[in-house]
Task: inverse folding
């Protein structure tokens, strides 16, 4: 918890006020039974109506004060708790934004969502309750004990039996409940994970007719969550009647012993009544403490999971004085090997490659041959395991990351658009772009052709993930978005796979003729998409099998020839 304390700074005042107000409320609560005993023992005993009314009014006043302090304390507690949670959520969200791809592989998206929502909420609630309960319970118990001893010290000895029994009962139940509560958290996670995965892929689920299967998977996890929750709750349910038995037994004992004292004239009847109220307050305070520990348990699991995110350092670090300018679009790989974090197997092996600025490079190879992995190293989406990658003659690790990524535009294989308008999506590449620049980029990516047909043009709505566009349209918009940066290098990772051959050819032509100054890397499955590249790299099982232009490769690379022939057959047959 201490690690998160700095996030409370903004809400410090509320965090301090809440317990102080709570103490005032407790004082008012404590004084009320005392007045009650006065009314019984003096007012009623002497048949003094005026005294009864006077003390009665004071009692009402004390109750009003208790209420006011209670409301104010709850208000401050809520502000501190939820403000604290919002602050943690903000910091965690910002931290996730700084994550590298490797970090994102480590935490799944669904677990990050649970942390940002559930865990932050839990921390907020627990903080709010702790600020109040952690103060209320001990003070209430202490003051009520003092008052009870004041009234009758010998009678107060019942506490010596009642308190240990209550404490033991609570401890036993809590020890049993603890592992259940921890398990509950994991189960909630598992249900969230499946909901997240299923809803993001709901269309795939439907098209594969997997609803039944998914329902089964969901039911199993949902049921085990229910079972654990029931088990945990039934233990807690047990606590309440158990405490009631203890409270009532104590009251009976007090009535029996105290009753004799009252009869003997050693104690007032009113004193006995208020004594019983104090007993109830003390034992209820103990119960509150047990609830508080239970909350703390819930909170500490959440705090742990938030800290796990906050303490994760992005592997992609900037050096002290990063270079702020990329000279040109040349790229070189020197003895590069790479394995994904958490794995031991090298996905790339000793890659050496020199690409001149402005060259158009095609990359082809079977699926899983590490094409994407190779190009991801250029804008430092991942860092090399061995060797080095240089852009413009300088190691990519020496650049300011923002500068590097602005100059090396990457159209990811799994691309996505964001909720908003087409114009807003295009401005991702360049905040201050004019409509003219946007339209120009759209034209170069062959996207203007369909965007210009929309009545609202650039204002046309983009749904979350770009769901309202076809696969090919999305790809063309993604290419246009990358061009907005006016980069020195552009990487298209299978970005024209959903685009028809004719349009694809037009895009390739534009890249060759109009964007000749940009180094272009095109990963493609179709030979037609890269046939006219200056050079083509054939990837095979994590290494470069051969490099050359189309004609050369037909002669020297059996893999290339095989791909070519299979695709030719497709065209002919
Ligand atoms: N994030 C990741 N974590 C661990 N392993 C990965 C990750 N991404 C890819 N791999 C592994 O690296 C290997 C190469 O994958 P890569 O995506 O580079 O292939 P590819 O040539 O781009 O394939 P495709 O043509 O299907 O896009 C694969 O065996 C894959 O299992
Ligand atoms: Mg790929």
Result:
């Amino acid at each position: 918890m201490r690690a998160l304390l700095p996030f409370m700074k903004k809400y410090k005042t509320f965090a301090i006020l809440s317990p102080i107000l709570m103490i005032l409320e407790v004082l008012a609560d404590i004084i009320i039974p005392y007045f009650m005993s006065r009314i019984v023992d003096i007012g009623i005993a002497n048949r003094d109506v005026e005294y009864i009314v006077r003390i009665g009014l004071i009692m009402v006043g004390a109750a009003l004060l208790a209420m006011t302090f209670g409301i104010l304390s709850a208000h401050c507690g809520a502000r501190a708790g939820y403000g604290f949670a919002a602050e943690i959520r903000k910091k965690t969200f910002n931290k996730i934004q700084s994550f590298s791809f490797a970090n994102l592989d480590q935490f799944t998206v669904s677990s990050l969502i649970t942390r940002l929502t559930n865990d932050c909420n839990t921390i907020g609630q627990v903080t709010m309750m702790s600020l109040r309960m952690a103060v209320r319970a001990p003070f209430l118990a202490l003051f009520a004990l003092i008052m009870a001893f004041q009234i009758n010290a010998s009678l107060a000895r019942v506490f010596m039996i009642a308190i240990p029994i209550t404490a033991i009962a609570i401890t036993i139940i809590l020890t049993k409940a603890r592992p259940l509560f921890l398990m509950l958290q994991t189960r909630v996670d598992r249900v969230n994970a499946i909901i997240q995965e299923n809803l993001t892929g709901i269309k795939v689920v439907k098209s594969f007719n997997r609803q039944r299967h998914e329902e089964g998977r969901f039911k199993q996890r949902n049921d085990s969550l229910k079972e654990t929750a029931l088990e945990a709750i039934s233990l807690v349910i047990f606590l309440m009647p158990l405490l009631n038995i203890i409270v009532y037994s104590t009251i009976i004992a007090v009535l029996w012993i105290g009753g004799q004292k009252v009869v003997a004239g050693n104690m007032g009847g009113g004193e006995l009544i208020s004594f019983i109220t104090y007993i109830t307050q003390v034992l209820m305070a103990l119960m509150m403490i047990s609830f508080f520990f239970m909350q703390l348990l819930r909170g500490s699991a959440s705090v742990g999971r938030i800290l796990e995110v906050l303490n994760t350092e992005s592997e992609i670090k900037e050096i002290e004085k990063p270079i702020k300018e990329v000279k040109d679009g040349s790229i070189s790989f020197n003895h590069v090997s790479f394995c994904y974090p958490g794995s031991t197997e090298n996905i790339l092996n000793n890659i050496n490659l020199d690409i001149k600025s402005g060259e158009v490079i095609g990359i082809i190879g079977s699926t899983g041959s590490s094409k994407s992995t190779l190009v991801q190293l250029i804008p430092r989406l991942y860092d090399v395991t061995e060797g080095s990658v240089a852009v413009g003659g300088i190691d990519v690790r020496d650049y300011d990351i923002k500068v590097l990524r602005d100059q090396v535009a990457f159209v990811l294989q799994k691309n996505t658009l964001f909720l908003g308008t087409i114009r807003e999506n295009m401005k991702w590449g360049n905040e201050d772009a004019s409509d003219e620049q946007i339209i120009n980029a759209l034209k170069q990516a062959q996207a203007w052709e369909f965007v210009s047909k929309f009545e609202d043009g650039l204002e046309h709505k983009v749904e979350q993930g770009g769901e309202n566009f076809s696969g090919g349209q999305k790809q063309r918009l993604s290419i246009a978005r990358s061009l907005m940066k006016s980069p020195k290098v552009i990487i298209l990772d299978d970005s024209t796979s959903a685009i028809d051959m004719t349009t694809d050819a037009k895009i390739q032509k534009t890249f060759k003729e109009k964007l000749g100054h940009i180094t272009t890397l095109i990963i493609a499955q179709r030979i037609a998409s890269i046939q006219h590249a200056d050079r083509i790299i054939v990837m095979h099982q994590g290494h470069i099998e051969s490099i050359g232009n189309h004609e050369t490769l037909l002669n020297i690379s059996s893999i290339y020839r095989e791909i070519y022939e299979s695709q030719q057959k497709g065209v002919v047959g």
User: Anything to note?
Assistant: The chain has a mean pLDDT of 89.
